[in-house]
Amino acid sequence: MIVDDTHRRHVFDTIDLLLEAPVDYSKYYYEYDMDPGFKNSLCVAVRKDSKLDSAIDNIRQFLPIRLHRDFDPANCPEE
Q: DSSP for 32-52?
């Protein structure tokens, strides 16, 4: 599952509510610039121990993007 706009606190707080069993998922966060000085972020949630979860490191290397395991809610400037 991909959820965009996780820089908005109400969206960030909704991620676990959208997952059937949040503890069964690995969450990866990607931050990107919308405008100069304005960051946006999205969350990619994949089922733990799935083929996709084990392929994330290969995807990171193939597409040189930063997928963070943690996202601090303090980084949510918008409510």
A: EEEETTEEEEEEEEEETTSHH
Domain containing 12 equals 2-75
**pLDDT single digits (tens) 50-60:** 998 888 878 87
Strands (E), 1-79: 2-4, 25-35, 38-47
Q: Which residues contact 70 (CB under 8 A, 6 or more apart)?
A: 29
The low-confidence residues of the chain, meaning pLDDT below 70, are: 75-79
pLDDT of residue 78: 63
Domain count, the chain: 1
Distances (CA, A) of 59 to 6, 27, 32, 36, 54: 21, 15, 17, 27, 10
Q: Which two tokens stand for residue 63?
A: 């597409």
**pTM exceeds 0.85, yes or no:** no
